[in-house]
Batch of 3 targets.
Target 1
Amino acid sequence: MRSTTLTADRIAEIKARAIDLSDIRELTEADFSRGHFRNKVEVKIMMEAGLLEKFNATGLDLESYINSSVRTAVAEYGA
């Protein structure tokens, strides 16, 4: 098994590898504006257990759904 200790030689070996990154597109301002890379703050909410269970059964992402819902409310009611 190869050592996982990062020595100067090991770092040089990793850097010397020819890694093909050509299939990875460059991130654009549009990527950042969609919100995937925005600063986030952790919050805690209380939710009815049955409601959460039903939501999870939909397969939707709760964090994304809440963010979208709050964005809509802010746009509608102003902030």
Target 2
Amino acid sequence: MKKFLRSGYTTGACAAAGVKAALIFMTVGKIVREVEIIALDGTPLKIPVAGVEKISGGIRAEVIKFSGDDPDITNGASVFTTVKKISGYEIIFRAGIGVGTITKAGLQLKIGEPAINPGPRKLIRNVAEEFKIGGLEIEISIPNGEELAKKTLNPVLGVEGGLSIIGTTGILRPMSEDAFKNSLVPQIDVAKAAGFDTLIFVPGKIGEDIAKKLGFNSGAIIQTSNFIGFMLEAAVEREIKKIILCGHVGKLAKVAAGVFHTHNRVADCRLETLAAYSAAEGLKSSEVQKILDANTTEDAAQIISANHLEKVYKKIATRASLRAERYVFGKMKVETILVDYAGNILGSG
């Protein structure tokens, strides 16, 4: 039986719901336990309100984040919005505890701005417009946000001090592969805005650590996860001149074989690639079979080393670079650095 996954609401929707609860209290003195807001795609959302209280100069509301069946790290976190009346008609946004500040160019907001994205700002402005009471100062806080932000790309993207208040509509649907891929792309925008036209693509932590040891600027190091092809295309769209692929041989050997989505459920040709290149260099068939029968690429590497065929790694790296350049129709240069789990460079090309 097909399981239907539950949707939730974004941190931006939580903040907007908190603003509405606070404004209801501010205007009519009523404490509400649920509010309805209209998502930016027109969908009505009913969101529970955990609490509303008067504080010095304003009203503070708490909404508990619910992410449905999406594996969101903020699920269950308290989102506090503090609303204060100010003169004029402007809405001013502030980053409270656990909400970050923009420190790098290339994102949707200017440097120095609170990391409250345009979608949530519009959602909050729509809510405020219902009350027509003029200027407001709105501060958003997530008490454990700074710690949670360490598990996100925020430190890489230049959002410091906490989480971003995000959401394009307000509805949080279970994370799709496309959504995850698109969440990686802003790294390229930030790196380009910082002046880098050569980027180091790393599929994971191993490649990142090696790239840093090799002296590459951390601002140019981009996490691709398994979506190497997608990120190559995104880099071409942004007119990046050169990419250096840096990662474990087991991951990047797949690129040499023409595989650009490297999750093992999509394609697992690591051992076959190592075996084929070793055979091309003269490895006898019984040893080739040992590579094919190996449990991991690390096991296969021991066979390659025992037969003094380390030169295959340069061949594989060179081929990975060639296949990557072909993938983007020669629109940028690509180099490849292969490493093992211990952090040793096996070959480059």
Target 3
Amino acid sequence: METAKVLPKGQITIPKDVRTALGVGAGDRVMLVSDGDRIVMMNPATYAVEWLGSQMTGKANQAGFATEDDVADYITQMRRDAAPR
């Protein structure tokens, strides 16, 4: 658990351990997500992957993919079909 002091302009310094855990550094952006009565700080890329995953839940089964190998085979076939002849 870490704390940060809010400066007069609303700025805070994110503790090093938290920056490391988020995978962010100088110049990077962080996302602040409201989760009920708390705010969660996230790496925007992580948030995007989680959001996409939530949107895709069940879509593979609907498309007839039962395993990751099914998806890989489909991608391989699509690449073959799209390759210049």
